[in-house]
Please model this.
Amino acid sequence: QLQLVESGGGLVQPGGSLRLSCAASGFTFGYYAIGWFRQAPGKEREGVSCISSSGGSTKYVDSVKGRFTISRDNAKNTVYLQMNSLNPEDTAVYYCAAVRFQATMCFIAKSWYAYWGQGTQVTVSS
Model:
């Protein structure tokens, strides 16, 4: 019933850009903080970014700060991750996740999130 669906992944050359989308349904989207996570082959799932329920607070891990931008449109029940200046280290399956939390804060910690999407593949290769 509660569903998160990622889209927008694909193959891109180093230095290129992609915009990922996380479309939500089945819950009151504006009550939920959203996180983006990624998992490369053979690696643990790691946090990328998060955005608070209102969009008033965002966080990024150092490896993507300045290159990635998270945003949300609560009217469209969608969160976006704009990824610029991509490099091969960004290659991973990208997941969005949700947790009901209405404070102006979020955390890039996978244990914090209750609901997860299926992931979308991002491949950065020359």
Summary: The two ends are 39 Å apart (CA to CA). The first strand starts at residue 3 and ends at 7. The mean pLDDT is 97. The CA atoms of residues 74 and 111 lie 24 Å apart.
